[in-house]
Amino acid sequence: MSYTIMLFLLVFGLFLSMLLFLEIGRRIGVRRIKEDSTTAAEGFGAVNGAIFALLGLLIAFTFSGASSRFDARRQLIVEETNDIGTAYLRLDLLPADAQAELRKAFRRYLDARLEVYRKLPDIAAARKSLAKADELQRQIWRQAVVASRAEGASPAAPMLLLPALNAMIDITTTRTLATEMHPPTIVFAMLFGLALAASLLAGYGMTGSKVRSWFHMLGFALVMAFAVYVIVDIEYPRLGLIQVDAFDQALVDLRESMNQDIQNPGQK
After folding, report:
1. Cβ atoms 182, 119 nearer than 8 A
2. pLDDT of 71-93, one tens digit each?
3. For residue 3, which of 68, 210, 211, 239 is within the disulfide window of CB 3.0 to 4.6 Å?
4. Are 213 and 206 in contact (CB under 8 A)?
5. Cβ proximity of 7 and 229 under 8 Å
């Protein structure tokens, strides 16, 4: 079952649960009024306010955190594109006979990096591509170190190329860890739990009307469920409907520019 379907079922379950808790809260309120109509709603205003305020704060913080991590992941794609492109250009500092092999390795490396994220949500396949990219990193580093010390290399090669390669390697670790940065599970559990608690209290507060207001009940549950869906979907931007894949185009464009070296070898 895909992540999108699982998330939809989870949020739909929350929606139905909220409707159930709204109805339970309303029936509790109706029973309380029958027992003592004078004190049924006394003393609950502060409790309701505290619960709804806590729910609002939790939604605001989780949405803000998910949004900031979403933007950070897009920025990391741009940084990796710049790092790979810079290192690739600085291969010009190496002897001509060493450049061709390294440029081929760069093209294979970038293909592997793109495959890592294209194969998600297949975690096993993504890890296989990641391992391949790591091996190519080591290969490129070894070849670059030797070539930068070879006869015919620019004196600036060790100072300019190797730091660029180091940045290219480091950004892969940063991006990999960024995909695993999420709030603790307890935060999402609190979000779901407070949504149900707020539904119970909201249902209790609807007992002032003799007629059940399906418009308000459905509207409350739908808005809350949709907010939770957006938060969770943004938090996992490689799996759901909201994705950062559009920014991968920067890496694709870089890969296309590398192909020009093959078509126009005289430019290098």
Report:
1. no
2. 999 999 999 999 999 999 999 99
3. 239
4. yes
5. yes
